[in-house]
Design goal:
Elements: H1 19-32, H2 68-85
Length: 86
């Protein structure tokens, strides 16, 4: 990946990746690779490289000035919503 671009897996039951696994990967990125306070944006999309994409796309653009608490609250809301529709 180019500098300061990080990746987390997209949820895909066919590949054994649950929504919880994906959210845990994002949390781990914020703990180990880059603080959420230094994150300009999050783009969540189901790209499969050259092979196409997954149809259920979620895209999120987080403001540059987001506070850690606000970001965590937003991730919790997304997590709850994913569990509700799963």
């Amino acid at each position: 990946m180019p500098g300061n671009v990080f990746r987390a897996p997209y949820p895909n039951p066919l590949h054994g990746i649950s929504e919880e696994h994906s959210l845990d990967a994002i949390r781990t990125l914020f703990k180990t690779d880059i603080p959420a306070s230094q994150t300009a944006a999050m783009v969540i999309e189901p790209v499969q490289g050259e092979g196409g994409f997954y149809a259920n796309t979620i895209r999120i653009l987080v403001p540059l000035t987001v506070e850690q608490e606000v970001l965590n609250e937003g991730l919790d809301i997304i997590e709850q919503a994913l569990h509700t529709i799963a």
